[in-house]
Every structure is written in structure tokens, then in C-alpha cells.
Amino acid sequence: MQQDKFVYDHILIRYGELSTKGKNRKDFIRRLHTNVKHALMMFEDIEIEKTHDRMYIHLHQTDPFAIKPYLEKVFGISSFSFALRVDSDIEAIKAAVLAFAQSQAPKTFKVVARRSYKQFPMISDEINRAVASVVLKNTEWKVNVKEPQVKIQIEVHEQDTYIMSDKYPGAGGYPVGVGGKAMVMLSGGIDSPIASYLTMKRGVAIECVHYASPPYTSAQAQEKVLELARLLAPYQGHILVHIVPFTDLQLAIYEHCDESYAITIMRRMMYRIAQRLAEKQNCLAIVNGESIGQVASQTLESMRTINDVISLPVIRPVATMDKVEIIDLARKIGTYETSILPWEDCCTIFTPKNPVTKPTIRKAEYLESRFDFEQLLDECIEKCEVVHVYPTKKKDEVTEDLF
Predict the structure, then answer these.
(1) At residue 74, does pLDDT exceed 70?
(2) Inter-residue contact 172 to 78 (CB < 8 Å)
(3) 259: which DSSP letter?
């Protein structure tokens, strides 16, 4: 709960899943420190300090509630709390907690102390009792150890002690960038933004490729995709979107190939382009929003035939999720309303009436042999437009690129 009359001077950040990373822990913490610094770069007065098990933001009178929404989108953070730092002295601790209690209306409370510094002269239970006693004697607060309105947390270190009352959930996962980089096939639908989000959550930075087919797809459809990238950008800081002009290649597919195989061949071409861009941009994998069985091109037979044209691994984060789960997550991260805007992408515009659900590699290769698609692929790559997308929409507000 927000304490309007109490002044915090720090934010304490807990790492969570980073604790499992063994020898790589230092690299993960270093990357998280960089990502937090980048996410909070507009707050000029703060200082960020990292240790082996915690990160601390020195607020210097900056409002912690202004920082909170930015910190919530940094992957690698398990949770964080607003805190007051005092000397590791029991009298200083008691005075600070009493001031906290006196700053607001009476409530029920519980004190939970944790000693990181085991040489502190009092054990945790003794700290709990000493602090609770001073609050009970000097305020109308009451102890409730089972369901307290306020849980006062005390972390005792060798030099400093941190006093907190709230714990806010972080985004979890790993810091973006520790797992390399991948190329996301970003459409204007619901699934691929969620695939992007889940990929970043596992520590993989992303770039995006989008296939545009003007005049069959509109400028609004392209802007919709860029808006989705802007909604995803706070989790990473900056996203490159590669806009591929796909019209000529798509028309050639429908001219030379059986209509039932058009989507299969089109997806094989998209994969080829994605791999070329990925290799050019030092991406280690391709990511998309395919969900098993959702449409004709997402049966296992289709995936096998489409996947056959590339050597890079393909990651499908939503492959086993049902649509309700995907929509719920899209609502949670704020991409759903943009994804359902009625601007169709090239896959939707050119959907055949009866697409094949069990395509074969042999038939796909035969149909592709009917036309010179390699030249068309080269033209797609050559004419590709690169758009730098930032959360603020203003490129000059960002001073560095992380990935």
C-alpha cells in the first residue's frame, strides 16, 4: 500500500531465478544492472548499486511510484520493495520503524527480520520482538501474525539495514540479452506479440521481421505492427523492425503454384527471408507465433514442410497454448486491443479457400521449381526497410542501443 507520509530513500530489487545460474550469475547480474539502468535512464538523480544477491536504487528524493511502472517491465527481477536504509543498529532500526508506523493510521502488523549479516548481535526473532514492542508501546497498532494488514520486513546487512512494508512482483525470467538474439516473425495478430514477450522473458533479445504486401495490405496494417513493437519495446528498450516488401513474391507464388499450396509456399519463402535477415543481424534463431493446429499452415505436417527450407532453429513459444491462454496474456501485457484492430496482413488477405493441411516437401519443391524465386528473395532483402522502434516513439530520447 502507498504510504503518502512516509519517505523512502531506496528501492530494493530481488533477483529471483538468477539464483539458479551458478557460474553465469555474475554475467546475469551485470546484464540486469545494465537493463535496469537503461529502463530508468529518464530519472537522472538516481544511483543503482548491484551486489551478489540484491540490487539497490538510491532514490535521492525521486518518487518511487514514478519508477515502479518502468521497473515492472524489466525481465530478471523477481520482486522489488520501496525501502528506508538505516545503520545496522537496533536503536536506529526501532526508530525508523516507529516513524513509519506513526506516519499513518493504526493497522495490524507483523515484523519479519532477515539477517544477511550473521554477526549482528541479535537473532531474527529478537529483532522482531524488539521492534514490535516499540511500535506497540508508542502507537495504537496491533500485532496480527497470521493476516497482518502490514508486514514490516527488515533486512540486516553488515553496514546497512533496509526497512520495507510492500513487495511488488517483477516480470520474472532472465535479463534480456543473456540468451543471445532471435528474429521474430511479427504479424499484426494476437499470437506473435506474445511469442515476442515470452522470448524476451527467457533472456533472448529480439529483432522483428514483418511482411508487407502493398497495395493489398494498407499503411494502417504496417502502423499496427509498429505499434505492437512499441508496446513490446519497454521490455527490451529498443526493437529493430525489418519491413519486407512481399507483394511481387506473393503474386508470383499465386501465379505459378497450386492454390491449395499457396500458404505453404508463402511460409517457406518467409522462412527463407527470416533466416537471411537473422544471419545478417547475428540472430541465433527464428521465433514465431505458431500454435499447433490453429490454422492449416500450423499442423505438424505443415510445420515440417515449411521448416525444411532453413537450418536455424525455430522457437514457437505459444505452440502448445490454447487461444484463451494467449488472449489472456495479450490482455495482461496490453497488446490485445491493438492486435484486434481490423487491418489485415498479407497472410489473411491471400488465404486460399481450401489450403492443404498435410503438405509434402516433395510437392512444395516441385511447385517452387516452376519459377525463379531466388531473384525475388534477393529483391525482398535488398528493398527491406529497417525501422527503429522505441517505447517513447522518439529516437533521440535514447542514447544507446543494448543489442
Answers:
(1) yes
(2) yes
(3) G
- Residue pair 71/40 in contact (Cβ under 8 Å)? The answer is yes
For 237, which DSSP code? S
Mention every residue, 6+ apart, whose C-beta is less than 8 A from residue 149.
Answer: 107, 108, 109
In this structure, what C-alpha cell is assigned to residue 34? 545494465
pLDDT tens, position by position, 288-335: 999 998 887 889 999 999 999 999 999 999 999 999 999 999 999 999
**Do the Cβ atoms of 226 and 326 come closer than 8 Å?**
no
Polymer length of the chain: 403
For range 55-79, the mean pLDDT: 95
pTM: 0.89
Side-chain-side CA neighbours of 163 within 13 Å: the count stands at 28
Rg of the chain, C-alpha, whole Å: 26
Phi-psi region of 173 (alpha: psi -120 to 50; beta: other; left: phi over 0): left
Q: Which pLDDT value is given to residue 2?
A: 44
275 CB-near residues (< 8 Å, 6+ apart): 286, 310, 311, 312
Query: What SS3 state is found at 126?
Result: helix
Q: Tell me, what's the pLDDT at 17?
A: 66
Name the DSSP letter for residue 188: S
> Helices in 213-261 by DSSP H: which ranges?
219-232, 247-256
Task: Report yes or no: 269 and 237 within 8 Å, Cβ to Cβ.
Answer: no
Q: In the chain, how many H helices and how many E strands? A: 14, 15
Mean pLDDT of the 274-291 span: 97
Residue 382, C-beta contacts closer than 8 angstroms, at least 6 positions apart: none
